[in-house]
Each structure stands twice: as C-alpha cells, then as structure tokens.
C-alpha cells in the first residue's frame, strides 16, 4: 500500500519535449528532480547531496536549473540537486531521523526507515530509467579531500563507458576499485548502468576551482554521451589508480582515532609520506591520553580530517599510492 502523499510514477520516456520539474515522493520521503527531455536517446542522471553536508553538487546543479537552456538536445538529462533533503537541512552527513547513511543504504526497501525508503525511491523511480549516472560528493563538513573521480570495476563494456565518463572530469584524478555494497553506484552496478562518482574538496564549504572543474567535466560528459553536440573533446591526461583492494578507497576505515578527543594534523593534503611516518596525533580532553598517528602505508595524503573534534574510530587520514 502506498501512502496518500505518493507521487513517484514519472515515466521519463512519456514526457513531452521540454523542461520539467517533478517531485518524487513516497512514504514520507522525497526529492525534486529537474528534467530536460528531447525524445529518444541517452538518459543521464546526476545528483548531489547524497550526504547532507556536501554542497558542491547541489550548488552547481541548482545553478544549472536556472540558466541551462540547451538549443539542441538528444535524449534526457535529469538533475537532482539535493537527494537527501532532511540531512541537507540539518547540515549533517546522515539522515537526522534515523542516523542512516544514505550512501550505505542502497538498494533500500519500502518498509524500512527513512533512509532505506529514500534509497528505494531513488533507485526504482529514477536510477532504473537512466543509461548513465553520476553522483556528486565531497569531503563535506568533516573532511578535506584531494579531488578525484572514481567507479567500481564491472564488465568490460561497462568499464569502457565508465573510464570514458571519468576522463571527462579531467581536472580530477581517478580512483578505481572493486564493488562496495550500499552505495548509489552499487545500485547502478546491479542494473549494469555505467556510473561514476566525484569527490570535491569539502572542508565545510565550496572551493571555486572545484565548481569550475565540475562544470567543465559536466559539459564534457554531456557531449561524450551524445546528449549535446559540439567540438571534439580535448581532455587532459588523467592520473589513474586501479586497485583490487576493496578497502583501499573505503575512506572510513583508515587511520581510525584511538579514542575521543582533539585531532591535530601534522601533515598536509597532497603530501607524500612514508609508511610509519608520524602524520598526526589525538589528545584526550582530560589530559590523560595522547596517541601518535602513523602512516599505514607509503603514498599521497588524499584525505585529512578537517573537523578537529573526533570520536573513537573516526577516520583521520586516507593515503593512496599515487
């Protein structure tokens, strides 16, 4: 049984050519989608704010809603500036009603908590209709990242498309790894949909260069998919890391805080460090404990904890061998 507030059956293929705004809503969760439609062709879906404290994606997409008026369009473009509205308005990573992390909840379920219901709605109502998918993330309020794009390895044909999609964002380096469950890209993976994600700097705000790089990449992607026609793409060579280690790009498992306290970084984003090198410390507030954080491996610092208050097991750094 569907609640009386349900409005989730929007068949993109049946929409008239032109610009549309639609509210996807069911069982107390929902989001706004903006749709540019022009007949048969690719269906490109892009969203921001899977996590509520990540602002680069929402800013870019919402600005495009006001100004983008494509003259020649083939297929369909769907933008969801803010997917996780409750988390966005709470200015926090996870859903305030249940503490759920939407990027760990896919494919979701109709009879679950708010986060699970939102994942199910997005997966079945929109993701299922697309041919290409992009999820825009960032370091949010707690982390600062060295901006990258990435995807999960898949079949040869899907990987070929994903490599080309990632290459469109040529001001970002590329991190490719094995399948991880629960993500938006996990749901796309299950549907054999080529999908990539972007990670912008974060650090509690928006870096203008990130927005410029995102916009350049989005324009490249629209042309690569064939949604828009234009000049032949000239892309910068992209630094790429491909790993078979399922945990390498799993950001939340590296350099965990040993206890609650104050985090002090002793290195900088983008710096090369050696395994075992001291890179930070955690100090307890009662003055009784201090711990030196040492590099787990040799590599480049691609994530640093920006928020200095930490709880036990919060990730403090991530290194990549690039």
Q: What string gives the helices and strands in order?
A: EEEHEHHEEEHEHEHEEEEEEEE
How many structural domains can be distinguished in the coordinates?
2
The end-to-end span amounts to 51 Å
User: Main beta sheet, described?
Assistant: 9 strands, mixed
In one word, what is the shape? globular
CATH class of the largest domain: Alpha Beta
Query: What structural class is derived from the secondary structure elements?
Result: alpha/beta
Strand order of the largest sheet: 1-2-4-3-5-9-7-8-10
* Radius of gyration using CA atoms only: 20 Å
What is the average per-residue confidence, as pLDDT, rounded to a whole number? 95
Low-pLDDT parts are none
In CATH, the architecture of the largest domain is 3-Layer(aba) Sandwich
CATH topology of the largest domain: Aminopeptidase
């Amino acid at each position: 049984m569907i609640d009386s507030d349900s409005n989730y059956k929007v068949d993109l293929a049946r929409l008239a050519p032109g610009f549309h705004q639609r509210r996807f809503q069911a069982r107390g969760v929902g989001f706004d989608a903006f749709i540019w439609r022009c007949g048969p062709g690719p269906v490109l879906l892009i969203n921001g704010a899977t996590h509520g404290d990540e602002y680069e994606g929402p800013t870019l997409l919402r600005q495009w809603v006001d100004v983008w008026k494509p003259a020649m369009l083939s297929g369909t473009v769907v933008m969801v500036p803010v997917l996780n509205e409750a988390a966005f308005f709470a200015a926090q990573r996870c859903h305030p009603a249940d503490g759920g992390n939407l990027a760990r909840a896919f494919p979701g379920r109709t009879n679950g908590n708010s986060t699970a219901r939102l994942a199910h709605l997005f997966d079945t109502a929109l993701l299922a209709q697309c041919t290409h998918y992009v999820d825009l993330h960032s370091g949010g309020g707690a982390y600062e990242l060295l901006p990258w794009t990435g995807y999960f390895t898949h079949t040869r044909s899907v990987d070929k498309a994903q490599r080309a999609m990632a290459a469109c964002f040529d001001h970002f380096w590329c991190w490719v790894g094995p399948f991880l469950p629960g993500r938006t890209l996990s749901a796309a993976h299950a549907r054999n949909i080529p999908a990539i994600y972007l990670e912008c700097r974060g650090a509690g705000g928006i870096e203008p260069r990130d927005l410029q790089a995102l916009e350049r990449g989005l324009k490249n992607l629209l042309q690569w998919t064939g949604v828009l026609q234009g000049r032949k793409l000239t892309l910068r060579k992209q630094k790429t890391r491909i790993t078979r280690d399922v945990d390498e790009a799993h950001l939340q498992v590296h350099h965990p805080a040993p206890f609650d306290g104050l985090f002090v970084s002793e290195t900088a984003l983008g710096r090369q460090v050696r395994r075992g090198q001291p890179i930070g410390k955690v100090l307890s507030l009662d003055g009784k404990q201090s711990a030196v954080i040492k590099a787990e491996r040799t590599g480049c610092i691609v994530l640093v904890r920006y928020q200095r208050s930490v709880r036990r097991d919060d990730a403090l750094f991530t290194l990549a061998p690039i």
